[in-house]
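Here is a tokenized protein:
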Amino acid sequence: MKKSRGVQLGVVLAAMLILSMAFVPAVSAQGGNDSKGLNSVEVPLGIEKRFVDDSRGGEGILKNVKMTTDGKYAYTKFEVDIPEIGNYYMAAWVMGVNGQEKIQAYLDGDPIGYLNTSENGWQSAPLLNNTFNPIFLSKGRHVFSFKSRDIPEIEFIRLAKQKAAAIISETKYRNYINILKSRSLQDNYKRLKNENQITEAMALSNPEGDYLYYLNTNFVYTYYKSFYFTGGQNVVFETRKSDPYASDPVMFLFNYNDPVNGGSWSNDDWGNGYQSKISVTIPTTGTYYLLLRSYSSSNPGTSDLYKDGSLYTSNVALAGTNVNIGGIYKTGTLNYFISKLTGDSRLWLADSSSSPGLIKASNDDYAGPGDFYWGLASRVKNQFSPDIKYALVSSYSSSNPTGTADLYMKLDNSDITSYFPNLKADDAIKSAPTSTVYNCISWSGGITNAWNWPPSPGSPWYDPNPLTAFDKYYGNNPSRYSGAWTYTRSGATVSNDVVDLWANGGGYTHASVTKPGNDHPHGYDWESKPGQLMRTFHPRYALRGDGYGNVSNYYRWSGTYALGAFLQSTGGMSFEESIKRGLTISEKVEMSVDEKGKLSNLLDNIPEEVKQEFNTKYGAWIETWDDPNLSIYSNPKMYTQSRQYKEFLNYSNEQGKGIWPLLFQKYEQGDKLVAEALIDLTYTEYGLFLDEIRQESAKERYTAEGAYIAPSENANMMKYIKKLLALE
């Protein structure tokens, strides 16, 4: 009975608590009949936003926001999780406009008041019902809806049990706008613009790749606003400023859901002075975006925005980072994306039809069918005609108006997914064409001119212990090139490494690399050059499977680089930069005239029937090289596992030294896999030659001009062939 009374007492206390909360001052919507719009049929406007670990919701957990219309009113709706029952104050970060009517507010369909905007521009607006009162919220998911004739531009809402905690700080935004307001164009700006000497940021190309990138980009908020227009409606947008030459805005207006076919317009300088103006008749009913940026990313500022001849809002931000990507022309479906993001990005793409181009695509938060989670990063995947010429990066958020990111542009889709069942097509992005010149180990070490496999006896980094061989390669022992990044397994973890070494039950198989490895761009997550296949950006573990196994070892950057001549510190750089600066040369070894003559004589002395049988068995082995199942591998030993290779090797072994000149000739002609047969046939008896050559190549050698002579397996094998030739 005591237990029963305790339960009953608890029920009574809970009921009293609920009743006490029920007597919180009531909050109701203004203009009762307008609330019927919430029960009307609503059409999504296509604008949605999900929140990722966003603390701006205060004591409420923001989940997502979307915009809809019932034909008369537009709605901005937030889904919010409330962790515990209670009374909450609410404020919204909202864009106020001149002459704006009250923005009506609803909770789960019921009116609760309105947002009080005191001025135009972004601001913190409390939820009012004559006064700033709290609202009662039960635990769980709730929908806050905001209604207006214009689409309510609300970035987020904030909930808190204390009134002061619900108020949103305007400091970052006010400081940002004040900085922009204080900016003015330099005295010679007019001359520079007239002479077309004001240039956008230029994207960079990359080693062996066929895309553009712009790393560590600082981006900021620039003004954009959504509108719902009906077909046939005439609209005029114009920027104005007391001194029309004090800022230089570029204006874009486009159909949000289909800018290619639904309408896209742009303008620079059709207003007064440097100000912009667009006057159009809307072709189709739908959601449209107005976007403003500064003509030059290095010359941001502000202007006032007018709509249909009346002031709409004052001191709008004219900024953004505009990148010229006209350096390469490509067709087909291409990828444009942002990665390594701090802040919250928006990506806008303009075509090459004119200057400043027409917006043909935009994205806020990408969510595709792949496994990689993009979070707040932006991505566009589409084909365009005309070609995309400009990529504008700006901040989604006005309340937190700055951020940094890497920008990648004009990348094809990768075709390697058939080899890796765990790699989704949406995640596979091509970063360089197929190549048999270099492989995953080379690329993860910053090299693009040679195929490297450290456990091979001809490699300058060879060691009988394969893992030690990889340690020597990544550890610059000897240096890969002057300025090469030095990596170590000591202290390397899953969270601080730059190179992942992969292995399966049969041994080591692959290596992948991530930013900032070797001072190269490496995409949104990790990058691989799988054997002969195209270089590809991919999620870290997407190449798991029977072929590569899994990541087995980690290498982190040691904080040092391979030194230059006379132990001079060069700083880290790519292989290409080291070559370009004259700090490194690739070692080249060729036969002398006498050696070529000797080889020719030895070849002439081989009976024709032996040559014919050699070529037949060699040709049969060559055909196996095209086996698609082998193309992912970087270990040359994988190409020696076939029956055809064993038959070729047995025949060569039966013929003895007399057949070696045919192998020498094949290697010199470029068939580098012949090195495997040479080593299998000769290393047991003559391996000391190769060991001596390798020891010599491990010494730091320089030209008279001070350039480091980079060792290579090809140079070592040519020296080995020359020594074997001398035995004949």
